[in-house]
Amino acid sequence: MKYRKFGKLGIECSAFGIGCMRFPMEKNEKGENVVNQKIANEILHTAIDNGVNYIDTAYVYSDRQNEKAVGIALQGGYREKVRIATKLPIWDVNSKEDMYRLYEIQRTNLQTDRIDFYLIHALNRDQWRRMRSLGVREFLDDLKAQNKISYACFSFHDNYEAFEEILNDYDWDMCQIQFNYMDIHNQATIKGVELAGKKNIPIVIMEGLQGGRLANVPASVKAVFDSYPVKHTPAEWAFRWLCNFPQVGTVLSGVTNLEQTYQNLETFDKTGVNIMTPEELAIVDKAREEYMHRIKVGCTGCRYCMPCPVGVDIPGIFGTWNESYKFRDDIAQNGHYRRIVNDGHGQDKCVSCGKCMEKCPQSIQIPEMLKIADSELR
Length: 378
Ligand SMILES: NC(=O)c1ccc[n+]([C@@H]2O[C@H](COP(=O)([O-])OP(=O)(O)OC[C@H]3O[C@@H](n4cnc5c(N)ncnc54)[C@H](OP(=O)(O)O)[C@@H]3O)[C@@H](O)[C@H]2O)c1
Hints:
Blueprint: E1 3-5, E2 12-14, E3 16-19, E4 25-27, E5 33-35, H1 37-49, E6 54-56, H2 61-64, H3 66-73, E7 83-88, H4 96-110, E8 115-123, H5 125-133, H6 136-145, E9 149-156, H7 160-167, E10 174-178, H8 189-198, E11 203-206, H9 219-226, H10 234-243, E12 248-253, H11 258-269, H12 278-292, H13 314-327, H14 335-342, H15 355-359, H16 366-377
Parallel strand pairs: 3-6, 3-12, 6-7, 7-8, 8-9, 9-10, 10-11, 11-12
Antiparallel strand pairs: 1-2, 4-5
The chain binds NADP nicotinamide-adenine-dinucleotide phosphate (NAP).
């Protein structure tokens, strides 16, 4: 495993970090949705046995079951081998007391005395100002002073201006951003990467494959990659491109099975800072240009918008829309979409309440985009 510098912290973490958000779910005896603990154990144990030492979870992942599953998987000596990152669920915070209460629940879920990287989850400008007024900076200072957390951090979903404001507003130990070869002008942007680098604040990457979209690319994008004499899979291109940045610490990958875990272990072993040639970088630029023509909506399937109060399957509809468009230019009449509608989860149920938009990290105008998707897919 390759290890990478974490800016001003003076530590190194594995290039590959396990993002636990996409662990598969199953029903337990009571019919409740729970994480498939067997698969979670397999992924985490395999990754750690092969040198991964950075594990990312959050209170809200997997219907609030993810931290518990990670806590269980890390028993038997694994906890001591890794740094755990988890996130304060800002949506449940209305006071400083809420912050302390939630931290204690999270620590218990994870079966640990100290959380290594403690992030304020999914900050945008408005949420940052709200959390700041509730005293989140003092709360983080206090947790650090009490050795309850090692590092005070945030994860981010907004634009560059908001990123700059948040980054400059507290002495952060790390920031986690959505970054990949498609998002150079979206979210924190490449300018944000440079700014964090200048301040020597380490960066952890999420959505490096845009939730999987950059692994399963349209044929025309694959053809661009395959035109290069040295062959890499699309996922390898995406990870190599990220690791080329010296400012980047760990790159999270939300693996869903052992096969992907093994593939990514191998891929990250071949990454490094500034190792890509100008010719390779030009191929990525060309792939980006080609892909731009093929995307209908920037949904990454993170499911933050769910559950929809009236049952619309928002990520399912957007996923179907993007998938259909990937391979053809006219996409009328989509069988998968008809099944979603027949099951009662189509756009026709949407009442435009806007609850989903409050939670969407990509700032998608969801009701409006659903209407367009419906008109094209029906
Ligand atoms: N803080 C935040 O606001 C926030 C938001 C989003 C994510 N995160 C964190 O960041 C982590 C990473 O983000 P992400 O899950 O969106 O990561 P990602 O790497 O962009 O996407 C993960 C998906 O990529 C596919 N994949 C992974 N390895 C592959 C391989 N070798 N070959 C083919 N496909 C592969 C899988 O898709 P399939 O299952 O379709 O095969 C997997 O579900 C999350 O797990 C979570 O811990 C945080």
